[in-house]
Amino acid sequence: MISFVAQSLSVALLFLTLSACQDSPATSADNFKLVISGSSTIAPLVAEIGKRFESQHPGARVDVQTGGSSRGIADIRNGLADIGMASRALSPSEQHLHGTLLAHDGIGIIVHQSNPLVSLDSEDITNIYTGKVRNWRDMGGLDAPITVITKAEGRATLELFLQYFNLTSPQINAHVVIGDNEQGIKTVAGNPQAIAYVSIGTAEYDVAQEVPIKLLSLGDIPASLAEVQAGRFPLSRPLTLVTQTTPVGKIKTFIDFATSENMHDLVKRHYFVPRQG
Amino acid sequence: MIWSNAITSSPAKGDRFLFHVLRSFAGIAGILVVGILTFLVSESLPAFQQIGITAFVTDPSWHPTEGTYNLLPMFIGTMYATIGAVTLATPLGILTALFCQYYAPQAIASGYRAFIELLAGIPSVVYGLWGLVVLVPLIADLRPPGPSLFAGILILTIMIFPTVTLVSLSALQQVPKEYIQGATALGCTRWSMIRQIILPNTWPGILTGVTLQTGRAIGETMAILMVCGNVVQYPSSLFDPIRTLTANIALEMAYATDTHRASLFLTGLFLLTIVIVVIMSTQQARSNQAYG
């Protein structure tokens, strides 16, 4: 955690010095405003990218508004926004618009390290979360009651989880409701019977730190950053920046900036998975 | 002579200055409370208008994204946790103070007091983390799932009893020495002296300690959030998870929008009302004691 803070601080400092260098009359002359609207999942990330963009492009204003993916798409169609944010891929009816992949959002199912299971399929997970199955024995595990951990209302992770398994939040029969990913991971680490879903990025990091948890495969697809990046892991969604046409001018400058490798620290801080290359 | 003149002629001016300073500081404190109350009311107004006040007690559950907003299970959760913790912490705190003041040898008493002060100063998130990684797994071994009303009561008890101890200690130290000397001269045992003379005399001070700890128990958020499980339900046993009103705000505020957000402010307003009722009723109890 400390090294992460130090890392992000040093990156921030680097950008401060960079922006100080670039503060020449040539760049400070162009004043422009970008209106970005859409998904509340992506908005916090884009808002931070926007702040960094503003500090490096004096005169630029980035205005981020939320209202859901559909509003993002509608605003682009009506020309009310320069860039739309959608926490999904463009649908076939939206192919006349242009989508740029910003990052992936992937969630993985975690259990305690001592749990003998290595994978669960969608039906198993639905049965566990709706309370139809209450003992690990029925899943081929040990004879012990399952502790079901879910996320608090309003969290993007919960939304993706419900959407993928086609559930509504009252259907979920949980024993523990958590706020952030770390709380979920600590709860699972302290309870050998627990099951939870958290952002894959956080879970992989903690597994590497030897926290006693493990990520379960979903069906036969392992839960890993690599699988999410490759677009193979099903419990994930692309976070998309939508524009009317192929980005040009200021919009292109911002999109290139947002998708550059320099933004990966921000992407990771929001528990998303950076896109490949 | 000259200086005494100066003093007798100037106090009015000095007093007036002090009076204005004190009055404005007191005013600021009052304005802050009223300001917070106004803010809470105005932020929760959309919830009143769009959902209606009865929905908060009659809706089938708390699922703001599905449009149901029942706060009652969380109110009950808050009450159970607070009453449980206060019931455990009050005798523990008073007995600790009595031990420290009348039974412990001098050397132990001062060290013990410092230890209690340290307990009172530990940030709640540290208690919460300890509860999450040590206490909850122990309870999970006993009765799964672990995060529960029981864990919340235990953590809260440890957090609030030092307040009662410290406030009671300072009340005990103010008991006039003559009382103790008199009791000793009459041949009272230590325990009957405490029971008959000291406790009746320090009762208002101890009550202040209990009020303070009750306020802290109701308002505690981080530790409770980490050990209680946060499931919105009426607990049917000590080992069921609960969600408190404070935990509800902390859990959902970061990602709440529109009516959901307003309903969380309403939760805050509700909490403030509970604290006001608690403080008013203990004040009532104390004035009855003083004049009755």
Give your account of this protein's structure:
- The complex is a heterodimer of chains A (277) and B (292).
- Chain A has 277 residues and is α/β, with parallel strands linked by helices.
- Chain A is built from eleven helices and eleven strands.
- Chain B is mainly α and 292 residues long.
- Chain B has a domain at 73-244: Orthogonal Bundle (MetI-like fold), CATH 1.10.3720.10.
- Helices cover 79% and strands 1% of the residues of chain B.
- Chain B has helices at 2-9, 11-51, 55-58, 72-103, 106-121, 124-142, 149-173, 177-185, 190-219, 222-227, 245-252, 258-291; strands spanning 62-63, 68-69.
- Chain B is globular.
- The model of chain B has no long low-confidence stretch (mean pLDDT 88).
- The chains are: A alpha/beta (277), B mainly alpha (292).
- The A-B interface holds A 40, 66, 144-145, 147, 152-156, 168-170, 174-179, 183, 186-187, 189-191, 193-194 and B 61, 63-66, 68, 132-133, 136-137, 140, 144-147, 225-226, 229-232, 241, 243, 250-252, 254-257, 260.
Topology overview:
The complex is a heterodimer of chains A (277) and B (292).
Chain A: H1 2-22, H2 25-28, E1 32-38, H3 43-56, E2 60-66, H4 69-77, E3 83-86, E4 98-112, E5 119-120, H5 122-129, E6 147-151, H6 156-165, E7 176-178, H7 181-189, E8 194-199, H8 200-208, E9 213-218, H9 225-229, E10 236-243, H10 249-258, H11 264-269, E11 273-274
Parallel strand pairs in A: 1-2, 1-3, 5-9, 6-7, 6-8
Antiparallel strand pairs in A: 3-10, 4-8, 4-9, 4-10, 4-11
Chain B: H1 2-9, H2 11-51, H3 55-58, E1 62-63, E2 68-69, H4 72-103, H5 106-121, H6 124-142, H7 149-173, H8 177-185, H9 190-219, H10 222-227, H11 245-252, H12 258-291
Antiparallel strand pairs in B: 1-2
Helix pairs in contact in B: 2-12, 4-5, 4-7, 4-9, 5-7, 7-9, 8-9, 9-12, 11-12
